[in-house]
Amino acid sequence: MAAPEPDPRPGPTSGPTSDSEPDTGPGPGPDTPPGTAPGPAPAARSGPGLGFGSGPGPRPDTDADSDTDADSDAPPGPEPLTVPSMSAGPDFGLRPWEMSDLPLVREAAQDPYIPLITTIPARYSDKAAEAFVRRQWDRAATGHGYPFAIVRSRDRRPVGAIGLWLRDLPQGRASIGYWMVASGRGQGVTRAALRTVTHWALHDLRVPRLQLFIEPWNTASAHIAEDVGYRREGLLRGWQQVGDERRDMAVYGLLNSDGPADGRAVAED
After folding, report:
1. Does this model's pTM top 0.90?
2. From first to last of its 269 residues, what are the pLDDT tens digits of the chain?
3. What are the DSSP calls for 204-261, one per residue?
């Protein structure tokens, strides 16, 4: 798994990666029908040129100013996004989160690692799981990223999550994180999902740089990232809080200008 973006609250790839599920958006909001992300649909964006070449992209939130005139000149915050549904090959698909995904949250909550580096509740309750799903909707509605549930095609069962997070998009980079529950591992689903989101981000959204953060012991996730075309760039010491301790993270990067990886076009397929 690639770890989630850092969660502001205390507190994981065929375990999680360190950018798999950030909790930077607002808390639970009103229930919203599944499908596209909640929020003002006419302003939502999911197509090419996400801040690069065809219009302004999301900007970081700015502090409120007590002066009314100054407020009117302040740059806008991130715009709402629409989370698309996409095929990840013949066996898996990606779609927005739905309230019907509570069984996936329950299974993830029982994993010994996923709750450590995501905001999956360590102690499952329907209320906590519903709040988790609403947070995924809020992230898209507030322009912070694209959270996807990973679904098995043959039975429509959700088996994991992957997200494209845009906090650093004004600097020309975004991060991807993912996690997979035990029942979804060993089926190629993580590789298919990562390849799909990577290709979409680089070629449709035209993000200049993507990055993953993976704990050094997590060789399975590192092999998946490298197979998709990511290159290990270094070790970030004490980068992220995981449970009760700060842990090192290896950073993996991929540029939309990178050449072929292992004789294959970067993020092909």
Report:
1. no
2. 776 553 433 333 444 565 454 433 333 333 333 443 333 333 334 443 444 433 333 333 323 333 334 344 545 567 899 999 999 999 999 999 999 999 999 999 999 999 998 999 999 999 999 999 999 999 999 999 999 999 998 889 999 999 999 999 999 999 999 999 988 888 889 999 999 999 999 999 999 999 999 999 999 999 999 999 999 999 999 998 888 889 999 999 999 888 654 445 454 44
3. IS--SEEEEEE-TT-HHHHHHHHHHT-EEEEEEEEEEEETTEEEEEEEEEEETT---B
